[in-house]
Every structure is written in C-alpha cells, then in structure tokens.
Design brief:
By secondary structure, the chain is of the alpha/beta class. The protein is built from 12 helices and 12 strands.
C-alpha cells in the first residue's frame, strides 16, 4: 500500500517501520524539542533501515541530539543580526535571503535552523510578506533574492507564482534563487504547476538543491531534477559534510559525480554549523580540508564544490579548502599539484 502521509511524530515513524519501538521510547525529549517530519517517499526508503545508515542518520531522531556543547548556539550563522524586516536577511550588499515560510518536507537532524523551523515557527503572513517584498523593491542594490526558510518549494504553486512574479517585476533583481530539499525528499512535488510558477520574463531563476549522499539520488529524485533542468532552471547543489554520512572521499566522489550526471553543479560543501545538538555530525576542519584535497585530481573540476565555513556571529561564508599556494611575490611562490608535488612559480629559468 502506497504511503500518503508524512510522519510527524515518533509514533508515526514506528508505524511506518522506520524506527524501532524500543528506540522511540527513549526519544521523547528529542521529539519535544526538535520537529520531526519524514515524507512518504522517504519512509518507503527508511523502512527497516539500520540506525547508522546515511539516510537514517540524516532524517531520524537520535539521543545524541540532547548533547549540546558550549560553543553551539540557537542562531549559529547569525541571521538575526542582519534581519531588518521579518523574513529578510541582508548580510551581503547585493543579495538578500527571503524566508517566506518555516515548513520543510523533512526536518534534517543537523539543520542549522532547527530551532526556528517546524510547527510554531515564524512564517510570514500576507502583510509581513508584502513588507519583505517592499524592502527588496526599494533597494536597487539588491541583485539576487534567495528564497529559503523553510523550503520555498513547499509553498502552493499559486503563492509561489505570486512571489516570483513580484520579484521578476523589480528591474534591479537579476536572479531569483531557491534553496530546496524537495527534489530528493519529496520528488513528486516537482509538478507541472510548480514549474509553471517558476517561469519568469526578465530575471533568471536558479535552484540550489540540498543533497548529501549518493543514495539520495534515486531514479525518482533524478527525474525531478531533470524536470527542473528541462524547464531551463540552472541547478547547483549544497551539501553538508556530515560524520557518518559522507565524511569519506569515495562517498563524496560518488555524490558529486552523480550530481553532475544529473546536470547539477556541486556548489558548496558546508562545514557543519554550530547548531544545538549537532556535535555528533561535525567533523574537524582539518579533516574536511584533507577530504577536499583528496578529491583534487580524482574528479573533474565540474564535480568540485567550494568547501566553506559560515563564520559564527553573522560574518558570512569563508572558503576553508586546502591551500595549494605559499610564498609571496618577492620570494617567489610554491604551488602544489594534485599529486602533492610542489613547484616553483614562476618556474626557475635555466641560464642560456
């Protein structure tokens, strides 16, 4: 029998066969603090899954979420400091985040907005959305609007189309970007009506798809991505480096190859943010840099994202990938190739 309902409780996960009853009995405090949602599509894939499998670790609650470390914070990337209007984050001069809703198809156990999304989160009502759009409309320096949240593709096609049309009508807005988990978490949602809502006449629409493991790129997910690409929407990916999920060079290689094969350019590999209860997912920075370094020379440049850290406190993203260059203009540079061999630059010239 085809499942039709999202599991939003421990009991729902048990009934779907995604969580053993004895495990659920110990997870009440986790469910009380952090939202649970797993789509029917993912429930089919999680039925009988081992707790430590890549999908289960991402989507099913665990007791490790109750362990909060001193450096973790409710707003780990400092959105609040840059929010002049409800629903707007204006950290960089030429772009803003527009957070129209708090709902997601699934609630990832490592989410950096886990204290803000889910039932009871701050969604924008009609007046608040109008105020957020007015903020963008009045500032000609805003070139890109990034719809995030919550997952913007959870909006109805009608409401989504209204937002896209309003942004497309602003001459200074060149790009409307959507951050979404929908293609890999609820691929049936990528419908003809949704694609129609994303059509524009002047701006460019881009989509950044959150995907962390090659097992997420099923035939259904790949078909959903193809619908977006065939509709003329350029696709990039965002992944989070997660211990026990993708902290392995071979797994990352497979993930990025499959994304590129699906016409998705790997864009960012995020170092884990300091969200409460997520220490069990975070790798060390040195570990992450070494993993990224091992990808050089193993995969095409198309398959290599930027490894970035969102600096706590609202200071923005910074690339933290491995350094291949040392020295300076006066003493000369040394550059390391993908095999680890170091070379002088400019090359030492032989005397004639």
């Amino acid at each position: 029998m085809k499942r039709t309902a999202t599991a939003r409780s421990l009991d729902g996960l048990v009934a779907a066969g995604a969580l053993a009853p004895e495990r659920a009995a110990a997870l009440g405090r986790v469910a009380d603090r952090y939202a649970i949602a797993v789509t029917p599509y993912l429930l089919d894939r999680l039925e009988g899954a081992e707790p430590g499998s890549p999908l289960a670790r991402q989507y099913l609650p665990s007791l490790a979420e109750l362990e909060v470390t001193p450096e973790e914070r409710v707003d780990p990337i400092g959105d609040g400091a840059w929010s002049p209007v409800k629903g707007i984050v204006h950290r960089y001069p030429d772009r803003v985040l527009l957070k129209a809703l708090h709902a997601c198809p699934v609630y990832c156990r490592f989410c950096f907005r886990r204290e803000m999304v889910g039932p009871g989160g701050d969604a924008l009502d009609a007046d608040e959305l109008a105020a957020a759009l007015d903020y963008i409309r009045q500032r000609n320096d805003i070139w890109e609007v990034i719809l995030t949240g919550g997952d913007p593709l959870m909006l109805s096609p009608r409401r989504l189309g209204e937002i896209v049309s309003a942004l497309d009508a602003m001459p200074h807005v060149g790009v409307i970007r959507f951050h979404t988990r929908v293609p890999v978490a609820d691929p049936e949602r990528i419908s003809a009506d949704l694609l129609s809502a994303l059509k524009v006449s002047d701006s460019a629409v881009w989509a950044a798809v959150h995907c962390n493991h090659p097992d997420e790129l099923t035939a259904e997910a790949t078909a959903a991505l193809a619908k977006l690409a065939d509709a003329g929407i350029p696709l990039v990916s965002q992944s989070v480096l997660l211990r026990g999920v993708n902290d392995d060079a071979a797994v990352l290689e497979a993930l990025f190859r499959r994304l590129v094969r699906a016409r998705v350019k790997p864009y960012y590999l995020h170092h884990g943010d300091l969200a409460p209860g997520t220490a069990h997912f975070r790798t060390g920075l040195d570990e992450g840099r070494e993993l990224v370094k091992r990808l050089r020379g193993r995969v095409s440049g198309l398959c290599q994202p930027a490894y970035v850290l969102d600096i706590p406190g609202g200071h923005g993203k910074a690339p933290v990938g491995p350094d291949c260059l040392s020295g300076d203009a006066d003493a000369g540079y040394v550059v390391e190739d993908y095999r680890g061999v170091r070379h002088a630059y400019p090359p030492v010239t032989e005397k004639l």
